[in-house]
Automatic annotation (TrEMBL):
Pfam families: HupE_UreJ_2. InterPro entries: Put_HupE_UreJ (IPR032809). It comes from the Bacteria. The lineage of its organism: Bacteria, Pseudomonadati, Pseudomonadota, Betaproteobacteria, Burkholderiales. This is HupE/UreJ family protein. It comes from Massilia rubra. Keywords: Membrane, Signal, Transmembrane, Transmembrane helix. The chain crosses the membrane at residues 52-76, 83-100, 106-124, 144-162, 174-195, 207-227. Residues 1-28 form the signal peptide.
Amino acid sequence: MSFNDRAKRARACLLGMALCLLTAGALAHGVSESDQGFLQGATGVHFLPYLYLGAKHMVTGYDHLLFLCGVIFFLYRMKEIGLYVTLFALGHSTTLLLGVLNGWHINAYLVDAIIGLSIVYRAFDNLGGFNSVVGVQPNKKAAVLIFGFFHGLGLATKLQDFSLSPDGLVPNMIAFNLGVELGQLLALGMILIVMRYWRSTASFARHALTSNFALMSAGFVLAGYQFTGFLSQ
């Protein structure tokens, strides 16, 4: 495939992803009205509802899923996949719990912009950009852990918007975090099924680079959307 053909495919992928992301932009970390009502009015321990909400948030959180796709894109061994996903889970679990329990107030637009840039970083790494352009390869495992911290902060800042009751907050946040982990495992399982099938086809080698260009572009769209929101406050 010529460079021009590859560029055309990347532009087409970018256009489709940009339209989807901009259409759903207002729903980033979105919470339905019924879920908002529950979060704002609930007092005491509600383990199962918070477990469900955590799983729902992860499965529908396209920014988290795009990052996970980038992380496992070129990972083939389950041991490696498990290690990277564990590091990501450790990162976002830590800041999710500490952020809510300690009342860390961080601008949600800035946190979500960094989450968008984490997708850019991961795709750029998959393209070999650090070795070929920068000349230095950052530690991949450390990067996943660090960006996991920011993904957890994104969850924490959204939850703090609802003025959660302090009554039962600790067990409820533990339940929410467990739900996030269950949702991550469910989403990861679906992603791996799709990736395994795609890797078995001839199109994977042809489209892998184009797909990462599109992934990186989607991260820029997300980051740009959030930076725009920050500047418009």
